Amino acid sequence: MTQVKKLWPLLTATHRYDKTISTYNRGHGVQIEAPILAYLIETSHGRILYDVGCDYAKINDPVQRARWYDPVEFPMGAPQMSEDQRLPAHFARLGLTPADIDLVFLGHLHFDHAGGLCEVCGAEVHVHGAELEAAKAKADDAYFADDFAGDYRWKIQTDEYDLVPGVRAINTPGHTAGHMSLLIELPQGRPVILAGDAADLTENIDDEIAPGTLWQAREDLAVASIRKLKALARETDGELWPNHDMAFWRGLKQFPEFHS
Questions:
Q1: Which residue, of 30, 73, 120, 249, has the greatest Cβ tally within 10 A?
Q2: Can you say whether the dihedral through the CA atoms of 255, 185, 126, 96 is positive or negative?
Q3: Where is the Metallo-beta-lactamase domain (predicted)?
Q4: What string of DSSP letters covers 125-185?
Q5: In Å, how far from its chain's centre is CA 111?
Q6: How large is the C-alpha radius of gyration of the chain?
Q7: Are the beta carbons of 115 and 138 closer than 8 angstroms?
Q8: How many CA atoms lie within 13 A of 208 on its CB side?
Q9: C-alpha triplet 17, 20, 25: angle, nearest 5°
């Protein structure tokens, strides 16, 4: 029986970029606005956070912004992130603090998913071993080295496993070496499958289009992961949620409302 009680999607920033970042070889010259999300899961065994968004200081401090988002070295540019979108601000609106987060599960270690680790530094941090290795080797430019260089309580994973009853880690490599998605069994509604960046947009799912950034150009691996998630959705009657789709996010319950 599931231990999940509530699920909150948290908008931590927004980012404008060329659509080819999300859809491989499709949409060149088309600018899209993407939400950068984290997900708070309350269970009877504690609170789980899937992804942590960006490092606020790297975006809002002029010196750090110039270093990490140099327009020549990083043409994708910096996201837009306000103080009230930081994780502690979201937690405070629920009467919580970062100390109330028991476990952080990182789908992957790109800057817009792992940068906010500095906000929840006391929690146990789950990540795939291949992902941490690729991040330390800077397999692509979206890994910011000091995002994951702190003294964190790493719990390195390789296999699929249950974080708690009702929350299962799913291996979905392709976008990155050790990307992981999450299956969440809600107490009343249909299960939710957080695709993470295995599928940025609904288009990635419907048309089985790989994300624009790929680990070692493995389009085949990325498409296989999308198909795996779609099969899981059919088997579980689950809802498959893309990760950077603004229209999809606007159709979800808006914070502080929750899914249950």
A1: 120
A2: positive
A3: 35-244
A4: EEEEHHHHHHHHTT-STT--GGGS-S--EEEEE-S-EEEETTEEEEE--SSSTT-EEEEE-
A5: 10
A6: 17
A7: no
A8: 11
A9: 170
pLDDT at 198: 98
Output the CA torsion 235→243→162→229 (10° steps). Answer: 30
Say how far apart CA 93 and CA 193 lie, in whole Å.
25
How many Å apart are CA 258 and CA 255, to the nearest integer? Answer: 7
pLDDT of residue 242: 98
How many other C-beta atoms can be found within 10 angstroms of the C-beta atom of residue 133? 13
pLDDT value at residue 150: 86
Gap between the Cα atoms of 245 and 141, Å rounded: 22
Q: What is the pLDDT of residues 228-239, one digit of tens each?
A: 999 999 999 999
Q: What is the DSSP string of 56-69?
A: HHHHHSHHHHHHHS
Looking at 2.60.120.200, 2.40.50.140, 3.60.15.10, 3.40.50.1450, the CATH number of the domain 4-250 comes to 3.60.15.10
Single-letter amino acid, residue 165 = P
What is the mean pLDDT, run by run of 10 residues, along the chain of 260 residues? 97 98 97 98 97 98 97 94 98 98 98 97 96 97 95 95 98 98 97 98 98 98 99 98 98 97
For strands 31-43 and 46-50, give the pairing.
Answer: antiparallel
Predicted TM-score (pTM) of this structure: 0.97
